[in-house]
Write a structure and sequence with these properties.
Layout lengths: L2 H21 L2 E2 L9 H6 L11 E2 L2 E2 L5 H18 L3 E3 L5 H12 L5 E4 L15 H4 L3 E4 L2 E2 L4 E2 L1 H11 L3 E4 L10 H11 L3 E4 L4 H5 L6 H4 L3 E7 L3 E10 L4 H11 L9 H38 L3 E2 L11 E5 L6 H10 L2 E2 L1 E3 L12 E5 L1 H5 L4 H15 L5 H12 L23
Parallel strand pairs: 1-15, 5-6, 5-9, 9-10, 10-11
Antiparallel strand pairs: 2-3, 4-12, 7-8, 11-12, 13-14, 14-17, 16-17
Helix pairs in contact: 3-11, 4-10, 6-7, 11-14
């Protein structure tokens, strides 16, 4: 065996170990999910090997007869699912979709308004992210920490003072809907485009839950497609443009603005996910939210400082928990990983050090995807308590987590539910 074959076998072996690990873990990172078996098959098709610059029927490459048919069907499914006028499945990630919006609707030196990172915003809206790449200045909305939402009156005043070229709403710690309807008259007075980053709650929005941004005042939604929408790692742009000029800019912002070839295999997997979500999405979204509320309640009753108990903890898949008194977000998330519970440390509104924040963020979308219900959230909360409060040996907790996971091995809310969630798909 050559040395290089050994290296390839090493990588393949690490993938096998990863699959085994997640097959015996409790996955709670709010920005992840597990793809359906049928959608996963699309990732290893010949679409992976092909190129399709441009739009269906207007390609810069030949060989796209069936690519065009698939892409047109995906656009149709997305428009139906999100009840929008325009859908573009070409962005290869949520961040790429975000950069495309900035390319389309702003120019260097413009001022845009966004949530702050410590209030749950995504890094692409920070100065060191996509906003900085475009040379923009961002002003952060005033924030109501108690309700984990924008301070509406202060935000109205700030918008009128700043008069941004683009107003962005949406966060990565997204417990409750953004107050789009309350801010709509102010935004219409300013006349700026309204953009909603729905990456985390895209599957909830598609199911008619959480909120309906395009009916509440947003002109466009961007998002990644692998969180509460349980698809491939890809992106999407959805819009009800206010005029043809905006539509042309959005199209050119994505291509040729920020994409060339748009990862056809992932786009095809997204199409399968959209079809499955039209079939199963409402039931899935409802269970995600019920599980999140149940997990929040269980942790609160155990003594954790879960945000927004007066609001039912969350209206989405996400919970924010202050674990400063138990060692902080870095320590607790590491101890959880040692016990096969996968979560992430997270900034809370008063934090200033991203690497040592006070909080952790939990999501229930993947737990729901593998079949967990409200009653199981009590057990999950108890596992976390044993790590964070009782300071039990993670190795002992890990044994019990592995036993617990034996009942949750298959993907739910999809067309084929008889294939293990973390099965390694090999080409033979």
């Amino acid at each position: 065996m050559s040395d290089w074959k050994k290296e390839a076998d090493y990588i393949s072996g690490m993938i096998d170990r990863h699959h085994e690990w997640f097959d015996n873990s409790i996955p709670m990172i709010a920005s992840e999910n597990v793809i359906s078996p049928l959608a996963r098959e699309m990732l290893v098709t010949d679409f992976h090997d092909r190129y399709a610059e441009g739009e269906p029927g207007e390609r810069y490459y030949h060989g796209n007869i069936y690519v065009d048919k698939v892409e047109l069907k995906i656009m149709e499914l997305a428009r139906k699912l999100f009840k929008c006028e325009y859908a573009d499945p070409r962005p290869i990630s949520g961040t790429v979709a975000n950069i495309g919006i900035l390319k389309a609707l702003t120019k260097p030196g413009d001022v845009i308004t966004t949530p702050a990172l410590s209030d749950g915003a995504h890094i692409s809206t920070a100065k060191f992210g996509a906003v900085g790449i475009r040379g923009l200045t961002n002003q952060n909305y005033p924030f109501d920490v108690e309700n984990m939402n924008l301070d509406i009156d202060a935000t109205k005043k700030m918008l009128l003072e700043v008069r941004p070229k683009l107003a962005l709403f949406g966060r990565s710690v997204f417990l409750v809907p953004a107050p789009l309807e309350e801010l709509r008259p102010t935004l219409e007075e300013i006349g700026c485009p309204v953009w909603y980053d729905g990456a985390h709650v895209l599957g909830l929005i598609a199911a008619g839950r959480f909120q309906d941004p395009l009916r509440e005042g947003a002109h466009m939604i961007t998002g990644s497609t692998h969180k509460t929408l349980p698809g491939p790692q890809h992106g999407i742009l959805l819009a009800n443009p206010r005029d043809e000029k905006m539509l042309r800019r959005l199209k050119s912002g994505i291509f040729p603005g920020v994409t060339s070839n748009h990862h056809l295999h992932a786009m095809a997997a997204l199409g399968i996910t959209l079809a499955e979500h039209l079939e199963f999405g409402e039931d899935y979204a409802d269970q995600i939210i019920r599980n999140a509320k149940a997990l929040g309640q269980a942790m609160y009753e155990l003594g954790f400082k879960v945000f927004c108990p007066h609001l039912g903890f969350t209206e989405s898949h996400t919970l924010a928990i202050d674990v400063a008194e138990h060692g902080g977000g870095e320590m607790i998330s590491q101890l959880m990983e040692d016990a096969n519970m996968i979560a992430n440390k997270n900034l809370l509104p008063w934090d200033t050090k991203p690497k040592s924040p006070s909080g952790i963020r939990l999501g229930t979308q993947e737990l729901t995807r593998i079949g967990m219900k409200e009653s199981h959230m009590t057990e999950v909360a108890e596992f976390i308590k044993r790590i964070a409060m009782d300071k039990e040996d993670p190795a002992k907790v890990k044994e019990d987590v592995c036993e617990f996971r034996k009942d949750f091995k298959f993907v739910q809310y999809c067309f084929n539910t008889d294939i293990p969630a973390y099965k390694r798909h090999r080409i033979v």
